[in-house]
Specification:
1 helix, alpha+beta, SH3 type barrels
């Protein structure tokens, strides 16, 4: 990823802080509230097995990041 592309991704991701997002990585897909965006990772607050956690995801592993619109469904 070029430096300009990386900075553009970080700038766009930063606009989603505080919102419900879905992060698709090479290791899996994660949904939660985007807490922060750093130079090489982002922090996602989510629930795993019923427990609220903060998940740190390296930017190099991210394939896609998008904002979720509408209420979260509970199964």
């Amino acid at each position: 990823m070029s430096r300009d592309t990386r900075n553009n991704f970080i700038d766009n991701a930063y606009t989603l802080v505080g919102q419900e997002v879905e992060v698709i990585t090479v290791e899996g897909t994660y949904t939660g509230t985007l807490v922060s965006v750093g130079g090489d990772s982002l922090v996602l607050e989510t629930r795993i097995r019923g427990r609220l956690i903060r998940l740190f995801i390296r930017l190099a592993l991210i394939v896609a990041l998008f904002r979720l619109i509408g209420p979260r469904e509970i199964f």
